[in-house]
Design brief:
Blueprint: E1 4-10, H1 18-29, E2 38-40, H2 53-56, H3 63-75, E3 78-87, E4 90-98, E5 104-108, H4 118-121, E6 131-133, E7 136-142, H5 149-152, E8 156-157, E9 160-161, E10 165-170, H6 177-191, E11 194-199, E12 201-203, E13 209-211, E14 215-217, E15 223-226, E16 233-239, H7 241-250
Parallel strand pairs: 1-2, 2-3, 7-10, 10-11
Antiparallel strand pairs: 1-16, 3-4, 4-5, 6-7, 8-9, 11-14, 12-13, 14-15
């Protein structure tokens, strides 16, 4: 199985300003190293985390989605990130996963942030979405989902692991940065999988600070690459499937995981 080359974009976001943010990401993506397989953007990368759907929600074929589509095709790289999406009057914090051929899949955030009143405005998703890229199985999730280990849990079914890479796109505040860092490590270790956490930097429209600290972790929870605090940057990492397979063969905890269903 081929290595997976990943670029994680740690960016400041202009509050509720899709046009400005897409222009900024145009500049950042123009710097992406050739041959990158996957580009990971923050949660609500086009607006910042806002619960103001009347101003920022877009239809399923809106400008941010079409921008992602164009970038995936032109860069020949899969791209993922979330957008506040209006579907028949229901608002979803929706992660899009777009392949280089223009096909796409999506995931609606399951756990809506109660402290930010997200749960009062948006509709929660009901199912996980596992995607494949270069034979890698990948589970992409959104921000607050990180605090719910059952929702993130890998499974060992018919001698196969459900996924190899876990991704969280986020707007995670600096006041809880310790939890951000530790929970990402825990999710990598407990699921025997690589783990990526992508977080924004800067202050949002409510003056909430975000320090970034995006990271690419191996299946031991060790950093392959880590973003600096309070700095816009592109973080690169190369993930190798061989060492993951070997570790799973040597440390067979997956075979002892509990079977469960999620409601």
């Amino acid at each position: 199985m081929q290595d997976l080359k990943v670029a994680v974009i740690q960016a400041d976001l202009e509050w509720e300003n899709c046009k400005e943010n897409l222009a900024r990401f145009d500049e950042k993506l123009s710097l992406i190293t050739k041959g990158t397989d996957l580009i990971v953007l923050p949660e609500m990368f086009n607006t910042g985390f806002s619960i103001n759907p009347k101003k920022i929600a877009e239809k399923t074929d809106g400008p941010a989605f079409n921008w992602m589509l164009e970038k995936a095709i032109s860069l020949q790289s899969a791209i993922t990130g979330s957008i506040l999406t209006d579907e028949d009057g229901n608002f979803f914090n929706r992660l899009y996963w777009i392949w280089p051929d223009g096909t796409f899949s999506s995931y609606d955030k399951k756990h809506l942030f109660r402290l930010g009143r997200e749960f009062q405005v948006f509709t929660a998703g009901k199912k996980r979405t596992i995607v494949e890229l270069k034979e890698w199985k990948i589970l992409p999730l959104i921000c607050y989902d990180l605090r719910f280990p059952v929702w993130s849990k890998n499974r060992f079914l018919k001698n196969n692991y459900e996924y190899d890479l876990l991704i969280y796109v986020a707007n995670w505040p600096v006041t809880r940065s310790f939890a951000w860092q530790q929970l990402l490590i825990a999710r990598a270790i407990e699921n025997q999988a690589y783990c990526i956490g992508t977080n924004r930097v800067g202050r949002d429209g409510k003056n909430i600070a975000h320090s970034g600290e995006s990271v690419i972790l191996d299946f031991h929870g060790n950093p392959i690459a880590r973003g600096d605090s309070n700095k816009e940057q592109i973080i690169y990492g190369s993930l190798s499937h061989g060492p993951l397979q070997q570790f799973r063969r040597d440390f067979t905890v997956g075979a002892d995981w509990d079977n469960f269903t999620i409601e």
